[in-house]
Amino acid sequence: MKEVSEELSVSKRFEMKLRSALDCFELLADFVNEGSIIAFRDVSGRLAEDEFSGMKCVSSLAHKFIFEVIRLRRVIEHGHADLQLEPEFRRHFLRELKVVLHVRNVNEHGYDIRGNENSQPSMHPHEHDGLNLALDETSIIVLSPQKILIGPINIYDVNILLNQLANATHGFVRARLSETRKSFSQF
């Protein structure tokens, strides 16, 4: 018997990637806000805490967020005929996310043995409260929920751009956005 699989429409792919990226950032913000420590059972069955687990989760969620944003960017770039986005907004969105694409490329290809000339990690300066910081695309510094740095980008700013995209597309994301905004309004 032949299995039938339904092809996902461009708009459904768009919705899934946008939702996934927003969810990643929301969970990431929760970890940053709460200073989460992960509890687990060690080999003897005792409850243990790992103070570094929270940061590992933050790093994983930040990289997952970048991955989802780039997948969303591809849907917008290649499926624009099926999406009802204003052309100027679409161009703006793609242009603004080009640096995120570079960060993703460095993380994926920066340590390849061959063919990675354009994906080498490089240092990027940032300033925060009088401190001069520098980090490459494979590093993450969390200074606040509004300042989560990876290489040249602050992923909070990328999330703002996604919120603009969600507002421009009307639909499923409206309720989730208001929840996310409320959680950040306390800072």
Could you explain how this protein is built, in words?
With 187 residues, the chain is of the alpha+beta class. Helix content is 53%, strand content 16%. The chain has helices spanning 10-34, 53-78, 87-96, 98-109, 155-169, 174-184, and strands spanning 38-41, 47-50, 124-128, 131-135, 140-144, 147-150, 153-154. Strands 5-6-7 form a three-stranded antiparallel beta sheet. A hairpin with a 5-residue loop joins strand 1 and strand 2. The longest helix is centred in the middle third of the chain and has 26 residues, at 53-78.
Q: In terms of topology, how is this protein built?
A:
Layout: H1 10-34, E1 38-41, E2 47-50, H2 53-78, H3 87-96, H4 98-109, E3 124-128, E4 131-135, E5 140-144, E6 147-150, E7 153-154, H5 155-169, H6 174-184
Antiparallel strand pairs: 1-2, 3-4, 5-6, 6-7
Helix pairs in contact: 1-2, 1-5, 2-4
